[in-house]
Amino acid sequence: MFNKIFALLFCFLLTACATSPTGRSQFIYMPDAQMNQMGLQAFDNLKTEKPVSKDRRYIRFVNCIAQAITRETGGDWEVVVFADDSLNAFALPGNKIGVHTGLIKLVDNQDQLAAVIGHEVAHVISRHSNERMSQKTALNQGVALVAAVSNPTSALGQLAISSLGIGAQYGIILPFSRTHESEADILGLDFMAKAGFDPRQSINLWQKMAQASKGQQPAEFMSTHPSHDTRISDLSAHMPTALEYYKQAQASNKRPRCTK
Ligand SMILES: [Zn+2]
């Protein structure tokens, strides 16, 4: 309750109110330029710290899917495939997408990977990292946060990295809230369907993910993107809308054929 009053007060004082793509009101005060810089810095760090895959088929497969989806959202996006057997994918402010080879191996088809990429891109489009950071930092920390991204052992660095949603890579877990997960699920479903991917495959994907995370393979993704028991029913409830988008996409000849 107090948080709400506090947020509302801030809204009036600082015009820190925003509206997410699904119409939810958000408390956001980090400048987008700083968030983008943070995403860029974090992505650069990951590219030097982690092996980047040279597998041409995988790179082509992931780019084919990411391009189709980001054509719907707009903007220029950089896509990198990381040679890492864990099940993970992420997207960062500043339009960066990372996909691990472990996840590419797991999916049965383009539509399942499109479900994950759509979900990740939806987190970015909905400015969830900004919202997370706005809830947890003081106003004057913006510039310091950008610098802190490169120092994952500092308290501020941990906050920045975990708010960006890549904390699992450094052993710091900050799961997205249920609200953010639901929003990314629904919006991600729309993105994939509008790009011409079969939205029904999203349900198979989430079931596969949940199953895999019970087994041997480290499923970083599920630690930062927790599954909740209403995920499948939420997706099913939204499926008629998504299928309508899917039909329209097909009618306008958006039929991606991405193969690995
Ligand atoms: Zn998520």
Brief overview:
By secondary structure, the chain is mostly helical.
Describe the protein's architecture and organization.
It is a single chain. The chain is mainly alpha-helical. The protein has helices at residues 2-14, 32-49, 56-73, 101-106, 110-125, 128-136, 142-148, 155-163, 178-194, 201-214, 220-224, 231-251; strands spanning 17-19, 25-27, 78-82, 89-92, 96-100. The chain has a three-stranded mixed beta sheet. The longest helix has 21 residues, at 231-251. The model has no long low-confidence stretch (mean pLDDT 89). The structure holds zinc ion.
Keywords, separated by commas or semicolons:
260 residues; three-stranded mixed β-sheet; two-stranded antiparallel ribbon; 12 helices; binds zinc ion
Structure ligands: zinc ion
| Proportion of strand residues | 5-15%
Structural class, judged by helices and strands? mainly alpha
H and E string: HEEHHEEEHHHHHHHHH
Overall geometric form: globular
Largest sheet: 3 strands, mixed
Report the count of strand segments: 5
What percentage of residues falls in helices of 4 or more residues?
A: 55-70%
- Let me know the average pLDDT: 89
Determine Rg (CA atoms, Å): 18 Å
How many DSSP helices?
A: 12
Amino-to-carboxy terminus distance: 50 Å
Strand order of the largest sheet: 3-5-4
Q: Unreliable runs, pLDDT <50, ≥5 residues? A: none
